[in-house]
Amino acid sequence: MATALQHIKVLDFTRALAGPFCTFKLAQLGAEVIKIEIPGEGDASRTNDPQTEGGESYMFISVNRGKKSITLNLAAEKGREICKQLVEKVNVVVENFSPGVMDRLGLGYEELSRINPGLIYASSSGFGHTGPYSARPAYDTIAQAMGGLMIQNGFPDGPPTMVGVAVSDMLAGLYNTISILAALQYRSITGEGQYIDISMQDCTWDVAGAGAAAVYYGTGQIPQRNGNRYFGTFGVFPAKDGDVVINVVTIGQWENLMRVMGKEDLLEIEKYVDRTKRTEVSGEISALVEAWTGERTIEEIVKLLSDAHLPASPVPPFEQVANDPQLLSRNMVAEVDQVISGKVKVTGSPFKLSKTPGDPTLPAPFLGQHNHEIYCDVLGYSEQEIRQLADDGII
Amino acid sequence: MSKALEDVKVLDFTRVFAGPFCTLQLADLGAEVIKVEIPGGGDAIRYDPPRTEGGEGGIFIILNRGKKSITLNISTKRGQEICKELVKKVDVVVENFSPRVMERLGLSYEELKKVNPGLIYASVSGFGHTGPYSARPSYDPIAQAMGGLMSVTGVEGGDPLLTGMPLGDYFPGLYSAISILAALHYRSNTGEGQYIDISMQDSVWATTAVTGLPQYFMAGEVPRRHGNRGQVYRAKDGHIIIAVGNVGQWNNFLRVIEREDLIGLEKYGSWNQRAQHVDELQPIIEGWTSARSVEEIVSMLSDAHLPCSAVPTFEQVVDDAHLLSRDMLIEVEQVISGKVKVPGSPLKLSKTPGNATTPAPFLGEHNQEIYCGLLGYSDQEIGKLADEGII
After folding, report:
1. Which terminal residue of chain B has fewer beta carbons within 10 Å of its beta carbon, N or C?
2. Distance linking the first and last C-alpha atoms of chain B
3. Same domain, residue pair B182 and B264
4. Is residue B217 in a domain?
5. Which residues in chain A have their CB less than 8 angstroms from residue B167's CB?
6. What is the pLDDT of residues A14-55, one digit of tens each?
């Protein structure tokens, strides 16, 4: 199968989650991603729990699949020299150190673009490289808070709540991927590279602010935590044996729902007919739907609503999602064959392109797995030279 | 300022959230996005509250700024013919109807690639166009539930929780933007177009499972909802996030809270180990935070170079000096409604930054420009098409 990014080479200095999630997406789409790691230890997330019997971190495998690993000590002068030789051979550099680190190493955009004028150089950091907070350290949770997401997440009577996955890291990874691909497009027309400065706070705010800013500036109201209910017929409702999702939006769907619930008498009442008016009596409608769902099982409700072509769903526990027939049929649970750990289950690729789909079967490298290939074959070092570099702690 | 996608034309059939969020990113990057809307009504969320004084929907404006709007009734034969003329002029088609709607209209990928062989055609739907659930209707909460995100969000022992914004729409929006850009890259090397089939469920799952799947398939553990445990703590007057990572930071933190006695204890030595002992650590840390104000804690921890943060209120976020300095809250000038505040673009490219300052179009604002300018219709002809309800 062809790959979309097959001629693209990426030099990847990223660690932890936000940066590696970006280069993972590029690797999935066919780019050659060369991950640079500290000799001896590598990406700190290599030691995260849980681990395979072979001692590889599952989390690490999850977001570093499809990449090549080489070791290189950037703190050493010789390491930085070699780094610059590598920069000459690639199209894209991605890094997620704290702002200032790459500059101090002499590996900032200004420096590297002199060596490779067409270079695309993407930095991903907590608050970006400009502005008053740029020097602040940040992790996912801090970005969830400072981007305005956490304050809107949770039940109305509860505290602001974190999203159950590192959503700010992953959003930054996705926006960074979009930026790099756009920069490649621009480069293919103009030949020019450029610098990209992705902030986790910016990316979080972009999704947290889209709806909320409209409410805040449109009405002056402060967006509230809505828990599981966006409005009267849209959200999660209590069934006899658990939770059920009902999403009724349009007037046609509303009429259908009232028929299924045996409430045809409400169809003529004006305050329920218009969608905007319905949001004004949202609480009243919520109570009506809850009374109906509370007397039925999840299965009954989903069946009754699905038969009436209304969007409804259970809230499956994680183990059911991981075995969901739809996800399985779309290869969204895949297996990679790790050199050290053997077969490991991973997520499939959501990039369903007909000619160049994302490849979910590529394994994650062990530390320095591709030293020989990159240093000898790409840079032309001899066996003896790379042994010497290893002895000197450079690679 | 140059634009990354300035030569790219997109014919945009998307409505509501997931599809428009994709074409919004493309528009911010400079693509010409021509939004095709139903004459008279337009996108279903065009007039959703909250509205401007001019009656335009606030969320619609945010999701559709930078696009052009034309009206076209694609359920008529004439409308479908005009649609195909437009397809010849563009590089990308994006749609988020239920699977098979475009096929019934004679506007499927198979049909449209006959008139434009290099076409990139992206579909965004609840469950994708293949598999047993493909015919099921879906919205964001269903994607959040069926993609597993709800199962891991919320407090321990409490109900699964929807995220406070439709991430079930936004994730597929971002994944489809990435797919389209990758397909454009492939086309510039090969000249070939292709079809893209993005599923909201896939997109939520691919993002959720990065952290959840390891535990499940490796350790056989079902990932639990853990709410704020281990990272967000109650202070005297609000909540505080403490994100202590490596052992140096942890030791520093213990000094600040005057628990030097815990320094060197192996069971708290690493992030992994502390996560395993969160039940013991929670009362120790919260005992300290709950006796102090957010401001005090931030000041003490920042002095010790420890990552921490208040949980700002929404008013504080929209007033945040840093977000403002990065142009993340800007104004667009709507033809009808005047100035409206919207989030800026996070796509900070030095030469071709995402531009978020163009307004959202009123319904059919660009009919003249596209039908006359691009397709060569006369004023008289478009007058007639309007009379017949085609545009």
Report:
1. N
2. 34
3. no
4. no
5. 163, 167, 207
6. 999 999 999 999 999 999 999 999 999 999 999 988 888 889
